[in-house]
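Encode chain A's predicted structure.
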Amino acid sequence: MTEQRTEQRTSRIPWFWHFTAIVGLALVTLWVFRFLFGLDEGQVISILEGDLNTEYFAWREFGFAALKQGHLALWNPHLFAGSPFLANPETALLYPFNWLHLFLPVGLAINITVALHIFLAGLTFYLWMAFRRFHPGAGFVAAVCFMLSGPVFSHVWPGHLSNLGSMAWAPLLFLAIDGLFTEQCWRYCLVGVVAIALQILAGHIQYVYFTGLIASLYFGLKLISASARLQPLLGFGLMYVWAAAIAAVQLLTTASNATTDGARAAAFTFKDGTLFSFPPENFLTLLMPGLFGQMGGESYWGRCFYWEMCLFLTVTGLIIAIQGAQVLSRAHRRIALICIGSCLALALGKRSPVFVWAFSWVPLLNHFRGPSKFTFQASLFFALLIGAGFDDLIRRPLERRKLAFFSLGLAILLFSLAGSIWWMDHTGHWAEVIRPILFSSESYISRARAHSLEILATSADFALHQTIQAGAILLFLAAALLLIPLGRIVVGFIGALAVAEAILFAGQFTPSFEPVSPVDRDIAWAIQKNPGDYRVLWDGTANTTMSLGLNATYGYSSIPPQRIESYIRAAVQYQTHQIGENFFDGPRANYFSLTRTKFAISAKPNGLPRLMVNTVELPQFLLVPQWKVVPNFLAAQAEITKPDFNPRETVFLESQPGLMITAKDKAATSAPVKVRLENQSDDSMEMSFDAKTSGLLLMTDAYDSGWKADALPDSIQSNYQVMPADSVIRAIAVQPGHHHLKLEYRPSAFIMGKYISLSALALFAAAVGIELFAALILVMTEKFKARSLVRWPKWGEANATGNH
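Encoded structure for chain A:
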């Protein structure tokens, strides 16, 4: 009877209550991020050591500064001796919500977009709940629990901008899938296209892929019980094809770079692919998010990183989710529980036979690492059950005795656990419990602290506090569940308790930092006293060199260019202790002169920087008459690492240059070339020079297959080819005479993707126009029933009014 009552509601909820709930989500977001209003100018939300500082800030600053001038940055000359920029999806230049950077300072824009995407995560989840006809109060509570949950909000701490962006649109995708089965229109296909395209453009392809896997599972489970299957199947496929077409300019550029010059084009080994597998003991974070410590300093002592190892969706929410699972129909409960179970089994990674099988057989899964990210998709369905449970409490304010006694029993269990922790702490047994974690290969806590007595005391305090806190909440909740018949105000108290838990949990993830520190500025000032066109090798603050106005030989990126990555690794394991006082002595001087690396910077043991100078310098352009052909860039790398390598004498190519060399040319020595540069930008330049002999114009900037050279009318040559030279840099074969050419970074995949994206967007705009025109006509004829102009035959669950 319960299932029938919850599945057969057809009444519509006034828009006022939906509006009120959405305003409530906005107010919760403002309250959680209220500290932003008190930040000093230039302060940015996140920790100093997080990805926002090491990656995103400099990318946003560079990319949107170029876009303000009407230029889409395809190439970044400031990192990795020059590297593709747009090809890295995490730069997210084409993501509409990042265009806020065009109008605001970088730090302020980042702060606003972080808060905005937490709100969007809540908003899209609420829309999914509203589509299922949940009560607005239930949708609001479930949305707050989701957007402030461990799998979502904890990414604010390290500043994972692309993660937050891609996660925010996942609920909208599941709304679209439900729409394909429960409505007779194609507008939900358009909704799905928007969700997937925005996920892609936000920049985190792994979340796009993982969400797509679980969305396919969800869709398949619904398809099994559908009475008609062809139309929803076509709709689901069309969503992904159309979204991929809209984002083709990003996808094709990224894919082309990954398969030619980008790193990580090959699949991961099982060992690397299962890095950051979810630890089984961290399932306890469903109830106690700080059981293994919390963020801040080194207070977290559990395995891996906190922000992907916490499942918390509030204690109250977890108990109400149990109620939600009970009131769902059998089919909907089965789908939700299978999706949760599948996500958690995959998140366990190397500890799960499900993931072991999937890693070998599911396409592309072995190209990603960090299976713990599947906890995010699990949180979607946990929150769905929370919404279903609260909806039942609101609509049927009856005593929930079984659930109350379950909460009471769980509280007693937690208080017993707290007593055990206290006893182990005072008898010395606590160390035996935590040391297997502290000293595991998955622990990132410093070994000095792992051996300290302080970690024993603080970890026990955290665990004891968290256990008692969870037990107390369960006691309050048990009492409230028994008092529900007194009135809906008790249900309101339960909802408020869940919201308060979520807000208090999110309150710990609000650090801030200054992107460029005074020490960084001092180092840059010391370097810039040496004029010239050179690069630095800095192992300190990664991409911050861009913000300091310096060009770097290396940098930080989730997909570093393969050639330069291999080039750096061949010379030095890129760690602080490897860059010593005599770093440029011996072969390294010639080796690093290829990329015009003049300075290496490292931190001394006392934390102060030290500066090493390379006395061997190469100009940006050099004419070299001699070359040797080797099979590939790794073979070239082996040659340039030899002690007798001299970059001025011989260039190592990977193919024949098609250049005739006379004996006179061979006898010539290499010489700098005076090149006149005009119309120079980050990814193009017009150059003219005179070559006295045939040879290779060596350019000490990083090579990429996207670089093209076009002859201009007064040039002696009619065509030019940009070739990889000495493993990492560029070369062009030239004959004697005057040369005038345009060098441009113009990847073919970008050109193709641009036209596909424009065509797909035009088609999408036309489809939206048809929908709006249909709505207008129906309103004018007083027959508007929220249906699509383009109607497909009924399928699946058409006419179904169930909300779950």
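The first helix runs from residue 2 to 7.
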